[in-house]
């Protein structure tokens, strides 16, 4: 059977007008260069989404490593849950007229901002007040080293205070050729009075940015 590669030509026309008056000084250069909202960023996002769909529809997965999810239904369910997690995260940190970021009073007040909103009838979340806290700072290391540090379960206790010093172990994962990965982590508490915790983590990187998101259960 002969195979034919399909090549699709895409013409991308963009016109973006951004109000950068409220942009943090760290990000002004990235916004003014077009990297934050330009076509390169959108194409990288589109490519990452195609990678996700290819991983969900793959029919032959070899269990080369321990913990690899090989069943199609298992991969689809896990990827769907991480997609909901990402959508929820983005909606929570996106400011609007109803939900705005406010500067936290105290020292270095310009560096820490908070936003609150009520969670009502939100699937998978108990009703109550959701608090978001954000800050920005430079690190004297390469972006890839920061990415590897944040997604490595062996170093999670060094920055994740909610792990409570427990033992973090990867239970299952969906890995892709680019190094991007969706992982299910288990935190075994060293305190007998505390219950164990599950963490769903998606880590991805591309030519424009790296990110790692987690959902605790």
Properties at a glance:
217 residues; 7 strands; 4 helices; 3-stranded antiparallel beta sheet; alpha+beta; single chain; 4-stranded antiparallel beta sheet; globular
Reading the helices and strands in chain order gives HHHEEEHEEEE
Shape: globular
**Structural class determined from secondary elements:** alpha+beta
Report the radius of gyration as a whole number of Å.
Answer: 20 Å
Describe it:
The longest helix has 22 residues, at 72-93. The protein is globular. It has 217 residues and is α+β, with helices and mostly antiparallel strands. The chain has a four-stranded antiparallel beta sheet with strand order 4-5-6-7, sandwiched between helices. It has helices at residues 25-32, 39-57, 72-93, 143-151; strands at 102-103, 112-119, 128-135, 167-175, 181-188, 197-205, 210-216.
